[in-house]
Design brief:
The chain is an alpha/beta fold. It has 6 helices and 5 strands; from the N terminus they run βαβαβαβααβα.
């Protein structure tokens, strides 16, 4: 079974959409949601995550167990998401052997050049399609 880790912070809006889209695209995947705060975690749980946790250590442990990590681009950048991504979190995501599916959101002083601005719902659907490819 494909183990998918979805990481998000702030209010969990990106993570919520990712969880919903991945559940629809790859129903057999086991989705663990990790929020940098309890609001993000709760949003992803309400969206249908199979399990959830909150905080830095949950990210570190989850990155060791996941086959795929999904979330906004900021999860690989220390101090992103208005400081919610610690250097240890970014290093854990970046050094994980898991495949990473990152949503290119141009926020928090990180701009991705060459990527067309698209609605978040469309980006979440594309990310889910990519995650589902790993289960084949």
């Amino acid at each position: 079974m494909l183990q998918v880790l979805v990481i998000d912070g702030q209010g969990g809006g990106i993570g919520r959409q990712l969880v919903q889209a991945i559940k629809a695209a790859c129903p057999s995947a086991a989705i663990t949601a990790v929020g940098t705060n309890s609001a993000a975690t709760a949003a992803m749980l309400r969206a249908g995550a199979d399990s959830a946790a909150t905080g830095e250590n949950a990210v570190l442990v989850g990155c060791r167990r996941a086959d795929v990590i999904a979330g906004p681009l900021g999860i690989v950048i220390a101090d992103a998401l208005l400081g919610e991504i610690t250097p240890a979190m970014a290093a854990a995501v970046g050094s994980s052997p898991a495949k990473r599916v990152l949503v290119p959101v141009n926020h928090c002083d990180n701009l991705v050049v060459g990527v067309a601005d698209a609605p978040l719902a469309q980006l979440a659907q594309e990310a889910a399609r990519r995650v589902a490819e790993f289960s084949r």
